C-alpha cells in the first residue's frame, strides 16, 4: 500500500473530525464517548441507536485483526473463523487488511468495518471514537488469554537490570500500544526510570520490529508484549537464547474482539453466537499460544487496568489523541519506505 493511500485512510475526513453526524439531542449521558454515541446504560460503550432506521444489516461483513505484526499471517490464521462466521450469520465475510491502528479505528467509525480485533491499547480509541463493542478475548474454558510487558535486551548485553537503561536507546512500539508504550510510561517511573528523560525513546512501529531491532543492535532494549515474543520464538524467527528479560509486568488482557455498535440486534446475536461457539482448530491454537476459543469479557470491567494505565500516562482516547497517533503512524510508514528504498539502492 502506498504512503499516499495509507495516509488517506488514516486522515480521511480530516481524521474523523469532518464527518457531519447529527447528535442525539435526547442522549442523557455519553460519558467519555465521542458526541456521535450515547451511553445511557453506563457500560462505557456506545448504545444501539434509538432510531431503528439507523440499525445496519449489511449483506457483506468486513472483518479484520489488529496490525501488530505481519497482516498476512493473521488473515490466514482467522480463515476458519471467517468461514464459521459466514455460516452462522448467513452472510459473506471478507477480510480487510489494515496497516495502522488509526486506519483501523477510522474504518470502524466510517462504517467500512463491522467486526474486528483491536490490540489492547488501541481498544480504547476503537470504543470511544469508533463505536466498538468489545465482547471477547482469546482464551480457554477457564480464563481469557493474557500477556505481560517484558523488557528485553540481548543476551550478550551488559544491561542486567532496569536501572542500567539510563542513557540508553530503548525501542517503544507505537504511541497507542499498551505494553509497547503506555504501560512503560505508567510503570517505569516507579522503578526509577522515566522514558524520554532517563533513556531515549525510538518508535519501532511494531512489537516484532522492536524485537528484531534489539537483536540487530539498533536498540539497547525494548518493552514488548510477551505473547508476541513467544510467537516469534515458536516460529523460529528468533531464539529464546538471543535475549535476556530484565523486567516482567503484571498480566494484561490480549486483543479485544467486538462489533460495530449500530449493527442490527438480530445480527449481533448471530455474531455473538459465532464467537462463543467457535473452537480454534489445532493450527489456530498453535498460532495463538494455546488459546482454543473466544472468552467473553466486558470493556467496563476487563479493560479497567488498561484505562488506568492510559490515564496515568496522560493518554486520552480522544480525536486529538488519535490524530497524533495517525501522524506518528504516517511518519513511521514514510520512514520505513525510505529505509527500504535506501536498502534496495545499496544492493
Automatic annotation (TrEMBL):
<dbReference type="Pfam" id="PF12974">
    <property type="entry name" value="Phosphonate-bd"/>
</dbReference>
<comment type="similarity">
    <text>Belongs to the phosphate/phosphite/phosphonate binding protein family.</text>
</comment>
<dbReference type="GO" id="GO:0043190">
    <property type="term" value="C:ATP-binding cassette (ABC) transporter complex"/>
</dbReference>
<dbReference type="GO" id="GO:0055085">
    <property type="term" value="P:transmembrane transport"/>
</dbReference>
<feature type="signal peptide">
    <location>
        <begin position="1"/>
        <end position="24"/>
    </location>
</feature>
<dbReference type="InterPro" id="IPR005770">
    <property type="entry name" value="PhnD"/>
</dbReference>
<protein>
    <submittedName>
        <fullName>Phosphate/phosphite/phosphonate ABC transporter substrate-binding protein</fullName>
    </submittedName>
</protein>
<keyword id="KW-0732">Signal</keyword>
